[in-house]
Amino acid sequence: MIFKGTKNWTSEDNSHFAEGGNSLLYRVENDDLPGQYALKLYKCDDLVGERYNRFLSEIEIVKAISKVNGCVSYEDHGLHDGRPFYVMPYYKNGTFRSEFLSDKTHKHTALYKLDAFLKVLQIVKTLHDDGLAIRDIKPQNILLDNNNDPVIADFGLSLWLNTCDDERHTPEGGSIGSQGYRPPEWASSYPDPNHRPGDIWSLGRTLWAIFAGKNPPNNYETLGGIGTHLKLYVSRDFANLIQSITTSCTSQTPSKRPNITELISQVSGVRDDVKNIENQQNQVKVGISDSLRIFAAQLKNSEAYIDSKREESETNIRLNEISECMAMLNEKLSSLLPEFEALIDKNIGSFRVFSSDREMMFSLNHNGLTIDCSDNNLWNKSVCIRFDPSDSLVQHKNMSYVYLKFHMGFTKEKEFYWLIASRDQTNISEYIPEQFETKSLINIVSNKLNQLDSFVVQHFLNRVESNFKG
Fold first, then answer.
1. Residues contacting residue 121 through CB under 8 Å, at least 6 positions apart
2. H or E, element range at 460
3. Phi, psi of 302 (to 5 degrees)
4. How far is residue 281's CA from residue 284's CA, in Å, rounded to a whole number?
5. Residue 340 neighbours by CB distance under 10 Å
6. Containing H/E element for 78?
7. Exposure string (b/e) for 270-298, b if CB count within 10 Å is 16 or more?
8. Nearest of 268, 376, 356, 250 to residue 313 by alpha carbon
9. Using CA atoms, how far apart are residues 443 and 241, in angstroms rounded to an integer?
10. Which long-range contacts (CB under 8 A, 24 or more apart) does 280-284 make?
11. Taking the CB of residue 341, how many other CB atoms lie within 10 A of it?
């Protein structure tokens, strides 16, 4: 079979090797070019309408992005029996689906999968920066080149951000995307052509599929509930960290999903954490400082109740992340108490660690608080390490408690926040060493645990000690 474009392309077996919704794929060769190529032929009888126009648009988009590293390159196009086709390189190493959603997925480490995913994100960033929303990201549309690096293919649903409504192919009220990978706003609405947040949703579900080894469920839920948390499919050593990426990407509200630059930063941070965990698993771990990071990642998730309403379901998942972080901090702070108690005589005072889900720090409003914390106290939690002087010091020296309190929860916009308060009640002195909002609380807490010892010394023990000087 011969296909005629600007060059002649020959298919030796005259049969297609793959089939899509609107196309057939053939292996073809050209006498003047080495190697095999893939030819994508429009297969439908209708040469007008949405599907036909999409195929023509796909050819133009592939031509426009042909030089983008990590995208299929354009070789030629033409007509065969009146049907359009275009030619691109043939990638014999398969796809992300054949590599990660099969028995082969178990041979790859978590670090390898995250590195492969980061390469995809860099390609998407280039396209997003150029103003193109891909709108059909899924493992089977990510090919592997000769170096096993990802190559994004299939731009039949892609859309430039400046496309006006008259030039769009989807009828109003129609749906786009692939089942399991398309976000809820694509199901039947006609949203703004800036579909980049929808690509982020698809990327989050693609990452879930890479680690779960199967396609995600065909629903529009925020992934991370009882039946979809990655702890069911991967090692608990790092399940929480990777799950935090998928959960943030699949927020029900598009504006709350990270943009591609923020997502690259988030995945890079998790990638470094996973690398540390994998390195520690190959070493003999001695003492708390050596095992802290892996201990934090291995803490078992408490189950979150997922009800039928998507927004409530997402909130429960995020509340579960707060509870997980609270447990990490409580456990770490409590581990410090035996050493404190061994060194400090009971006649001087005592130390304790406690947590609360009802107390909020109203006094901090006058001490530099800039975070607009939620009024729902059940969404504001704290863990406190506290020193109480002995009764003798209270009575005769008028001394009082010193604490270091770690606050976390939701802002009024339902973003995570992290805040630390240090208070010396003897001197009525309170200040905020650290406060900020974040999209992924578990990443912050995992990193902060490594700094906790020095933080406790600087903002807690030193304040206790100052009451005994002079």
1. 203, 260, 263, 264, 267
2. none
3. -75, 145
4. 8
5. 17
6. strand 76-80
7. bbebbbbbbebeeeeeeeeeeebbbbbbe
8. 250
9. 7
10. 281/237
11. 13
Per-residue pLDDT of the chain (470 residues), as tens digits, is 999 999 999 998 889 998 888 899 999 999 999 999 999 999 998 898 888 998 999 999 999 998 899 999 999 999 999 999 999 999 999 999 999 998 766 789 999 999 999 999 999 999 999 999 999 999 999 999 999 999 999 898 888 886 544 443 344 444 455 788 989 887 755 456 678 999 999 999 999 999 999 999 988 888 888 889 999 998 888 888 999 999 999 999 899 999 999 999 999 999 999 988 877 766 544 455 555 555 454 443 333 333 344 556 778 888 888 989 999 999 999 999 999 888 888 889 999 999 876 555 556 777 788 898 888 878 889 999 999 999 999 998 899 999 999 999 999 888 999 999 999 999 889 999 999 999 889 888 988 888 899 999 999 999 999 988 85
Q: Which residue has the tokens 């590599």?
A: 99
- Among 102, 83, 108, which residue's Cα sits nearest to residue 4? 83
- Closest by CA to 296, choosing from 334, 328, 326, is 328
Amino acid type, 395: Q
Widest Cα–Cα separation across the chain: 101
Can you state the percent helix, strand and coil of the chain, rounding each to 5? 40, 20, 40
Name the CA radius of gyration of the chain, rounded.
28
3-state secondary structure of 88: strand
Look at residue 172 and give its three-state secondary structure.
coil
| Angle, vertex CA 440, rays to CA 434 and CA 441, nearest 5 | 50
Bridge-based pairing state of the strands 8-10 and 349-356: unpaired
Side-chain-side CA neighbours of residue 411 (13 Å) = 17
The Cα 5–Cα 463 span in angstroms is: 79
Residue type, 438: T
Chain Cα centroid distance, residue 296: 19
Give SS3 for 279: helix
Residue 17 CA from chain centroid, whole number: 34
CA dist list (Å): 187 to 175, 183, 184, 191: 5, 7, 5, 10
